Amino acid sequence: MAIESVQDRAKVEAYGRRKIEMLAQAALNFVTPLTAVLNSEGVIILVNSAWRSAAMLYPKLKGGSLGCEGVNYLAVCEKAMGLGSEEANKVARSIRHVIADNLKTFTSKYPCHSNGDKRWFEVRVSAYQHFDSVCCVVTHMPITEATFKKKN
After folding, report:
1. pTM (2 d.p.)
2. Sign of the CA dihedral 29, 32, 35, 37?
3. CA nearest to 51, candidates 3, 121, 148
4. What gap in Å lies between CA 127 and CA 45, rounded to an integer?
5. One-letter-per-residue 3-state SS of 22-80
6. Which residues contact 63 (CB under 8 A, 6 or more apart)?
7. 101: pLDDT confidence band, cut at 50, 70 and 90?
């Protein structure tokens, strides 16, 4: 009987964790900007539907993969080549600093022009403590209209 109650308790706890994970994913999908959660090594552990859609549109990004869960986002940024690679490298360095300093934030605006379209984004990185490690949230928000209004 004790074995059944331990197994039952484990099943209930697993179900509770899964419900929380599903709620977290639903809440993240509600957020409009492209959003990813990274672990302390820079590996993507969760993305929202906007990020996933962008990853499907641009499966190869400057020699790497934009990627979803399991991809090391820092490695993708560090491997960037050509136009925008300097900014991508800056983002990787900044994410490392945010993770190392815990609870610090980083924000930067960058161009992401393609197919003749001139587009601008703002990247925001924030760290938070998750149990005994630090994770961070990375968002990319389109700001093209706001950028052009400022310049004109």
Report:
1. 0.74
2. negative
3. 121
4. 14
5. HHHHHHHHHCCCEEEEECCCCEEEEECHHHHHHHHHCCCECCECCCCCCCEHHHHHHHC
6. 79, 80, 81
7. confident
